[in-house]
Write a structure and sequence with these properties.
The complex is a heterodimer. Chain A is mainly beta. Helix content of chain A is about 0%, strand content about 55%. Chain A has no helices and 11 strands. In chain B, strands 2, 4, 5, 9, 10 and 11 form a 6-stranded mixed β-sheet that branches. A 5-stranded antiparallel β-sheet of chain B has the order 1-3-8-7-6, with no helix packed on it. Classes of the chains: A mainly beta, B mainly beta.
Chain lengths: ~110, ~110
């Protein structure tokens, strides 16, 4: 079974630009979550999508948005990039039909904002 | 107080020893607990899930859960240099129905 696939692996953007990250979950998984990981803050929850609906949201500004498609693939968008947005962005999917089934992470997209 | 707390380390153990990693959490309604291993520059990898009080063993790994004391631990027996990584504790909390992660404990196994 293929794992969670994230594209691209690396991105370099300039302040003020916007960026879109993509995530394909494990086949059959309908829940997709996004996390930001930085050395100082650890893993911070951005949002979770389930069946094309945002089920949960973390404490990030509105510049961070996401969506999920009917095939469960998800995209995350960050607008008006700031230097502090430089981080590893991780997508995780889970299945099992239960809220507490474990997360399975993709390889991440490393975003650098200059 | 953070929802999930771990000692950041670094923790160093000699090869063949037992590494003990600890995690405490704040929400008494927490349901599920997970340990992830993250190698430098890589993404977190699930190594253990535990849902009920007591011990759960998987190979060289043992997860221990004590809901009354609100802690979960991970023991790694016969530690190997390949176990050198950051270990993340994750808790699925009743508050907000979401996962919360500790900041991780860095483990180094010295050959």
């Amino acid at each position: 079974k293929a794992g969670v696939t994230q594209t691209p692996r690396y991105l370099i953007k300039t302040r003020g630009q916007q960026v879109t990250l993509s995530c394909s979950p494990i086949s059959g998984h309908r829940s997709v979550s996004w996390y930001q990981q930085t050395p100082g803050q650890g893993l911070q929850f951005l949002f979770e999508y389930f069946s094309e609906t945002q089920r949960n949201k973390g404490n990030f500004p509105g510049r961070f948005s996401g969506r999920q498609f009917s095939n469960s693939r998800s995209e995350m968008n960050v607008s008006t990039l700031e230097l502090g947005d430089s981080a590893l962005y991780l997508c995780a999917s889970r299945g099992g039909g239960q809220l507490n089934s474990p997360l399975h992470f993709g390889n991440g997209t490393r975003l650098t904002v200059t | 107080q953070k929802e999930v707390e771990q000692n950041s380390g670094p923790l160093s153990v000699p090869e063949g020893a037992i590494a003990s990693l600890n995690c405490t959490y704040s929400d008494r309604v927490s349901q599920s607990f997970f340990w992830y291993r993250q190698y430098s520059g890589k993404s977190p990898e699930l190594i253990m899930s535990i849902y009920s009080n007591g011990d759960k063993e998987d190979g060289r790994f043992t997860a221990q859960l004590n809901k009354a004391s609100q802690y979960v631990s991970l023991l790694i027996r016969d530690s190997q240099p390949s176990d050198s990584a950051t270990y993340l504790c994750a808790v699925f909390l009743g508050i907000g129905n979401q996962f919360y992660f500790g900041t991780g404990t860095s483990l180094t196994v010295i050959p």
